Amino acid sequence: QVQLVEAGGGLVQAGDSLRLPCEASGGTFTAYVMGWFRQVPGKEREFVGAMYQTSGSTYYADSVKGRFTISRDMAKNTMYLQMNSLKPEDTAVYYCAVDVNFRPLANLGKLSGYDYWGQGTQVTVSS
Where does the pLDDT of residue 91 fall: very low under 50, low under 70, confident under 90, or very high at 90 and above? Predict the structure, then answer.
């Protein structure tokens, strides 16, 4: 059974940085896309960014572009979300997800079809 485990969340001040790891374990799979999403209570889960595993190409939501960066360490089966210049509106539970099937660029932000999800990690940014 594949498991994704996020960590690294916490309470920080506006302008601070955090790095969230997402470690995959428990099974053998080849990810096509690994993505990050976030959710605040009462709102839909929203796309933050994603990486195509074959090419390493990354794509981001406009709200985080230039501040957040996705990277990976394949030897550790871990994807990272580096978050800089954090803002109070970045406060959310952050989730990582994996899709093992082809996913076109236009569908990167769609929740449906991602095969595995982590349990989430809370990020709180105070003003």
Answer: very high
